[in-house]
TrEMBL record:
Cell location: Cytoplasm
Keyword presence, Iron-sulfur: no
Protein species of origin: Novosphingobium kunmingense
Chief place where the protein resides: cytoplasm
PANTHER family cross-referenced by the UniProt entry: MOLYBDENUM COFACTOR GUANYLYLTRANSFERASE (PTHR19136:SF81)
SUPFAM superfamilies hit by this protein: Nucleotide-diphospho-sugar transferases (SSF53448)
MobA-like NTP transferase domain boundaries: 5-139
Name used for this protein in its record: Molybdenum cofactor guanylyltransferase
Gene: mobA
Amino acid sequence: MRLLGAVLAGGLSSRFGSDKALAALDGQTLLDRAVERLAVWCDSVVVVGREAASVPTLPDWPRPGMGPLGGIAAALRHASDHGFAEVLTIGVDSPGLPDDLPERLAPAPAYVADQPVIALWPVNAAEAVTAILEGDGRHSMIALAERVGARAVRLPGGTANINTPGDLARIAPRG
Ligand SMILES: Nc1nc2c(ncn2[C@@H]2O[C@H](COP(=O)(O)OP(=O)(O)OP(=O)(O)O)[C@@H](O)[C@H]2O)c(=O)[nH]1
């Protein structure tokens, strides 16, 4: 079963105050860390929602400004067009994901309870995300999860989430 990894890397980083994907943790940008993490688990990796990256990039669908759902929609459409069965999505802002994340999320669809951008989607979830983005309802990750019947999975020890420079400072090595 071919698995596409997609780093959701758009958004405003308004709480961080600058582009958090390019913030460094232990000498490496959060974006590069996320790409490296997915490369271990997936057959191929894309970055969604920005242009400059070390791997192929996709624009959000149908356009930027739709939030993470626009990134997921683009990744699912790409996966469907290129023969992938499932997509593993993560943000740039959750370093320290467990080594067995894909096993914990299988079978798809499933998402991490406190971080729903971290999720395993079957490619046919593209229909549901398209319907949500084209509809009048909430454009939320939880709306997508409910629509496709995704399970909420709790990770042991919770999930690091970097929203502010303080969040980053708390997990960065001291010295
Ligand atoms: N492709 C894509 N990714 C997004 C978008 N919005 C957020 N993300 C990503 O989703 C993850 C979680 O983002 P958030 O922290 O909730 O949102 P943010 O806009 O980056 O930050 P805030 O402005 O502080 O809410 C991060 O990896 C973001 O890069 C979007 O519109 N498109």
